[in-house]
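Write out the 3D structure for:
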Amino acid sequence: MSSNSVRVSAELFQSAQEQGEEMMRSAAQQVEHWARLGRALEEAGLSTDEMLAVLRGTASRAAKAPKAKRSLAVEVVSEEELWAHKRAKQAKDIANVNAGKVPAMAMGWFSSKRVKQAEIPNSPY
């Protein structure tokens, strides 16, 4: 997978670092996550006002009604299911790294701060 550099504001980068750390994503992965969410909402045909109304829970019944171009499938999952999915994705990523399909440096699950604080039992390092 190739990548390109994109300039973002320092404020957005800081926010991505903070939010990403909570979900064990790098800042770049967090920005990509936000971009995918925005793209999905736009592809569903929602306007910015409609998106905000849905997120705030203030969307009217008519706005929530399914429309041909504006239907958006949402699956409600538990926190346990979310973490199980994340662990399965990480296991798949590790298998791809071990198979040489993806470089290990492409995996940004942990912030540098957490990595520096990590202790490896019985390690000479």
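The radius of gyration is 19 Å.
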